[in-house]
Amino acid sequence: MLQQIVYLFPDKQESDFQTYLFRIFEKLPNSKKGHNSIIFNSSNPSDAKPETVIQLSDVAVPEIYFEMEQEVMMKAGNLCISNNKNHIHHYDRLEVIAIETKKTDSQGSFIEHNVNNNKYYTLPLGELYNRIASHIVRIDHTGVNLPAQLVTKKEYDDLISKLSLESNIYKYPTGENWPFILPATKDEFNKDIVSFPIGREPKFELVYDQHSSVPTFQFDIETDLTRSQVELLLPKPYGISFPDLADYFRTVYIYQQWKNVYIRFDIRFKNDTPDGDWETGKWLVKEGGRISS
Question: Which phi and psi (to 5°) does residue 237 adopt?
Fold first, then answer.
């Protein structure tokens, strides 16, 4: 059974990225500090697996490690996903984004990137922390987007199949390739999830991305801020609202030094129904259905 989903981040970094990454995640109620790591456990059921871990390591670019028996080895550009830490790639050299301009607005500073005359925008993690730190409520899910340009559908389906042998993974009910793993007890793994308490989190999402050409880590954090308050704190051009999801969260891409991987935070708006079908996973289980090999 899948025990942990581990996000490995380089332990050698010139910026303050790691400092603020840990500060944000330490604010979450179901987190605990380990050695160079933050561990998230499901609070209800308390013995549900997998745990989600943010860990500093001697990797040179961010990677994902699944602690499970099924053999997994996937590359998506610079991103490596494996069940064996010996397979994780240790690059000799980092590729750094070269063309960037620091800009400011009424909320603080952000970065404009210009690549082949195409502009996109990121927010330093310290800026995000300063704006939302006192408003963090919970973590809904983490995940990774795998670009179709880099990963074949067969490779993606094989990964989902292997994960289904070791975890409770469910289809996204509206049909997109956005399956979610829900933390589950050993008995729920052997049978299925039938109870839906508050606290079965964080979920883990594995997206087959038809739009981006770059692998993306995503961290979905709920706040006690209204939509208008979040939009004020995270305005355009770096604050983004995806059309079908604009009622739920606002997205920012985080400034960091690694090329060919994105890190994104989805800042979820204040929620008055913590026992809702999405929050508890009921919608995924009942409407999506479990993926089985």
Answer: -90, -10
